[in-house]
Design brief:
The complex is a heterodimer of chains A (about 425) and B (about 400).
Chain A (H helix, E strand, L loop, with lengths): L21 H9 L6 H7 L21 H4 L15 H26 L14 H8 L7 E3 L5 H7 L3 H9 L32 H17 L10 E6 L6 H12 L4 E7 L2 E2 L2 E2 H4 L8 H5 L3 E5 L3 H17 L4 E6 L17 H8 L3 H11 L5 H24 L42
Helix pairs in contact in A: 4-5, 4-6, 4-14, 4-15, 5-6, 5-12, 7-15, 8-9
Chain B lengths: L2 E2 L4 H7 L29 E2 L5 E2 L32 E4 H15 L3 E5 L15 H5 L4 E3 L4 H13 L3 E5 L10 H8 L2 H4 L9 E6 L14 H4 L6 E4 L3 H13 L4 E6 L6 E4 L12 E4 L4 E5 L3 H14 L4 E5 L2 E3 L3 H11 L2 E8 L4 H13 L8 E5 L8 H7 L3 H11 L2
Parallel strand pairs in B: 5-6, 5-7, 7-8, 8-10, 9-10, 13-14, 13-16, 16-17
Antiparallel strand pairs in B: 1-2, 2-3, 4-11, 9-15, 12-14
Helix pairs in contact in B: 2-8, 4-5, 9-13, 10-11
Classes of the chains: A alpha/beta (about 425), B alpha/beta (about 400).
């Protein structure tokens, strides 16, 4: 069944949400309308900027898409964005992410894990806000900063911690490490060390979803793929190539930019001709949305719309989340370049503290219950570390396993047998 | 492991092919036999326990079809209509293999530039888009790195893509994805994701295509762990390798050659595949083992004609599997002849021949009576001028000289 390649209908409109001109849609973006105190805390921190095109400052934040789209929100005095259960789920997930990363740092400095470890502290709102809306069959593709994406997607903390310790019980049998978290069960497709590398893979996963629906006739296949990557990646060719292909074929994918302003020591503003990444979406024919990535409720709002759009078959969305990493690029990064004032500003916008404040102020639950969650997470982590500590290291025989799905790929040895048929094969060497 | 040797007939069919017969409209096999036929050695199945079984219906049911190419040897006349099978050109054989696999398994899909509506720049995917639709035969934008990565992502999530590089050289742009993801993801995911992708395309030195379109990528890719590389050289093994590659759970890179697309051969009607890890015995012999692959096979066979007239008896093996090497077939040959000549189109430095030399020396040093000779292309970017281009690759005369020196 042939499918028609639609030419972009977006050429005249930079935004699919009825924004007739650049300046007017900017105004639309900057006006928050909710009376919730949660939004208030971020409003105070917006930098005053005389012009949206003043590239030396961050421009105003965008309120959730739902304010722009003509959705009718019921006018109630409370105007809550989440239920109690949702609030607790979000809170627990973010606390798990934060506590896990803090534990990683501890374990690293105690010599339990090595190499490059990239921590996610401060960015939890993006992972939780997006991934908690997914189904199990939806896919997530991440970068080297993938521990929390794995946890949010459902990979047990034990499996991730074991993987970091390099034990055979890790989610990748110890063969992947910090930068290569994979889980077939939870549809976590990695974990990539080179930036931009995962974006085509995510595009492929979205392609499979479309293929299943249209060629294999699995009519209910509406799996969505999320691709997470950073601001540095947005200057990479693979990013643009995949934006093109995803929009061209209307693939069910959401491109989530975790713009934390820094690519190791390279400021986003120094590396990018036009730092407003969300504007690059419409150039390829998809909506581009900028959201406050320190606010999990805003992220969740935008994510709902973007994921629904993909599920409907309307194609991809580019979401730029303004966020910040509280720690250095990796545990080896002394983090001396960033301005302490900037760090302090974002620390004040800690997403976990903000959500906690929202929950308490709106009486969703008591402080005691939140503290109970904190304690529970501490126990989960202790268990994870204990499990990882006690797990065995991979034996020598594991070296040659999993190189090939079909080990006949190691070839035929001089004796005429396939090398893999030799019972001593895995104790030997791998050159062919 | 059973190994099947192709019969002498295979050599007979190919021996008459002069080296400059690759002009697009003309390559036809003429089955003249110009050297002696080895008696009783049509083909044999050698089992891993050492017993030889002349009944080919042994271990591998996939290889029930004996050396189809050898059917030529049985008749001195031109291909007669009483023979089973059908005649086609190499690109049609690839197309047939691809089409059959797409019919067999709906998850097989094709991605590449101009594979759909255009039918492929070498017509390997002609007609497939009409038959299977635009999504199964996907015309991609010019973004090799990304669409190869997309193929890898699709393979991880359940599809079986065949990614075409319009020219092998373009896949250099996809090296990132091929090396990092294609080769490694099965391992770094601890075996959770398989990548049953086939990456194929024409490479090699053509007719004055210029340096960038004349690249041989097998040497660059050979170090990547986790992939297999095969090179086809006849319509028979082209179709067989294409099908085997698609059915394999491993990522496979299939190297085709620009000048071989119009070779004609009669191939069986029945379903068959060629084993990905095995080499092909083209012409059994006694004096010297000549190891080659892809286009150089024809230069070697051309030289073999001359050599036979001069009284030599070369054993010619088309190694087919560039990674891993079939050390069994190669080893048996070395043990018999004690002299090895490698003829390849790769560059001298770091090429397939270099690896093969190392592998043979490591494993069969005691059986060698002379150092291994490796004839490769010059380490130069392929020049445009025809006279220079001719000198860049190995010509039959050089092969004859090398054998004469080796056999002194």
């Amino acid at each position: 069944m042939a499918f028609s390649t639609t030419t972009a209908n977006f050429t005249s409109q930079p935004f699919s949400f009825n924004a007739p001109s650049p300046t007017s849609h900017v105004k639309l973006l900057i006006t928050p309308t909710s009376a919730s105190p949660f939004f208030g805390s971020t409003r105070k921190l917006r930098l005053p900027s005389s012009s949206i095109f003043n590239l030396h400052r961050r421009s105003g934040t965008v309120v959730g898409v739902s304010q722009v789209v003509k959705e009718k929100k019921p006018k109630s005095t409370l105007n809550l964005l989440i239920t109690k259960e949702e609030g607790l789920e979000l809170y627990e997930d973010m606390v798990l992410g934060r506590a896990f990363e803090d534990m990683c740092a501890q374990m690293y400095y105690r010599g339990k894990m090595f190499g490059f470890v990239h921590l996610y502290n401060g960015q939890e709102a993006v992972s939780t806000g997006f991934i908690k809306l997914l189904k199990q069959q939806d896919s997530v593709v991440s970068t080297y900063r993938d521990h929390v994406h794995a946890l949010s997607k459902g990979v047990p903390a034990r499996a991730v911690m074991s993987e970091l310790f390099g034990k055979t019980t890790g989610c990748c049998r110890g063969q992947g490490g910090s930068m290569h978290m994979f889980s077939r069960e939870h549809n976590l497709l990695g974990g990539f060390a080179f930036i931009g590398e995962g974006i085509p893979v995510a595009t492929g996963a979205a392609f499979t979803s479309k293929y299943k629906r249209e060629v294999l006739k699995e009519a209910d296949c509406d799996h969505v793929t999320l691709a997470f990557f950073g601001d540095g990646t947005c200057n990479n060719g693979q990013f643009f190539e995949c934006l093109n292909m995803a929009a061209l074929w209307k693939l069910p994918i959401v491109f989530v930019v975790e713009n934390n302003l820094w690519a190791i020591g390279m400021s986003h503003l120094r590396a990018t001709s036009d730092p407003q990444i969300y504007k690059k979406g419409p150039a390829f024919g998809m909506p581009g949305i900028h959201v406050d990535g320190m606010d999990v409720l805003k992220v969740r709002d935008v994510a709902k719309e973007a994921i629904a759009r993909a599920r409907r078959g309307d194609g991809p969305t580019l979401v730029e989340c303004e966020t910040y990493r509280f720690r250095g690029h990796s545990l080896a990064d002394p983090d001396e370049l960033r301005d302490p004032a900037e760090k302090a500003r974002y620390a004040a916008r800690d997403p976990i503290a903000a959500l906690k404040k929202y929950i308490i102020e709106n009486n969703l639950t008591s402080e005691a219950e939140l503290k109970a969650i904190d304690k529970k997470i501490d126990e989960v982590l202790e268990d994870a570390v204990e499990f990882a500590d006690e797990s065995p290291l991979p034996p020598r025989s594991q070296l040659l396993e999993n190189v090939f799905a079909d080990p006949k790929g190691f070839g035929i040895g001089p004796d005429g047998r396939y090398r893999c048929e030799d019972p001593k094969f895995t104790q030997g060497t791998a050159h062919v | 492991m059973a190994a099947i040797f192709q019969g002498v007939g295979a050599a007979a069919a190919l021996s008459s092919l002069p080296s400059n017969s690759f002009d697009s409209n003309k390559s036809v096999f003429s089955p003249r036999r110009s050297f002696s036929v080895r008696k009783g050695a049509s083909f044999a199945v050698v089992r891993s326990d050492g017993t030889v079984n002349l009944n080919p219906k042994g271990r591998r049911t996939q290889q029930l079809i004996p050396n189809a190419v050898a059917t030529k040897a049985d008749s001195a006349a031109a291909s007669s209509s009483s023979k089973p099978g059908h005649e086609l050109l190499l690109f049609e054989a690839l197309l047939e293999g691809l089409e059959e696999e797409m019919e067999r398994d709906p998850r097989v899909c094709v991605m590449g530039e101009d594979v759909g509506h255009y039918g492929g720049s070498y017509k390997v995917t002609k007609g497939l888009a009409k038959k299977f639709g635009d999504l199964r035969v996907l015309d991609t934008p010019i973004a090799e790195n990304s669409f190869t990565g997309m193929g890898i992502g699709a393979a991880m999530t359940g599809l079986r893509p065949v990614v075409e590089g319009m020219n092998m050289g373009f896949l250099l742009l996809a090296f990132n994805q091929i090396s990092n993801n294609c080769g490694m993801l099965h391992y770094t995911s601890g075996g959770q994701f398989t990548i049953p992708i086939v990456i194929r395309g024409p490479g090699g030195v053509g007719r004055q295509l210029g340096a960038e379109h004349s690249q041989r990528l097998e040497s660059y890719f050979q170090s990547i762990p986790g992939i297999q590389m095969v090179a086809c050289s006849t319509p028979y093994n082209a179709k067989g390798l294409m099908k085997a590659a698609i059915r394999s759970e491993n990522p496979v890179i299939l190297f085709e050659h620009v000048l071989l697309y119009n070779l004609k051969e009669r191939i069986p009607d029945e379903d068959y595949i060629c084993n990905l890890e095995e080499a092909e015995m083209v012409r059994p012999g006694e004096h010297v083992t000549i190891l080659t692959y892809s286009r150089m096979r024809y230069h070697v066979m051309q030289a073999a004609k001359t050599l036979v007239n001069k009284g030599y008896d070369p054993e010619v093996i088309d190694i087919r599997s560039l990674k891993p090497f079939d050390l069994y077939t190669i080893g048996n040959s070395v043990k018999k002849t004690h002299r090895v000549l490698i003829v390849e189109e790769c560059m001298r430095t770091g090429g397939i021949g270099a690896s093969l030399t190392a592998a043979i020396t490591e494993n069969f040093n005691d059986y060698l009576d002379a150092p291994i000779v490796c004839l490769s292309s010059q380490d130069v970017p392929t020049p445009y001028a025809g006279t220079l281009e001719e000198v860049t690759v190995v010509q039959p005369a050089q092969i004859v000289t090398a054998v004469e020196q080796l056999c002194q």
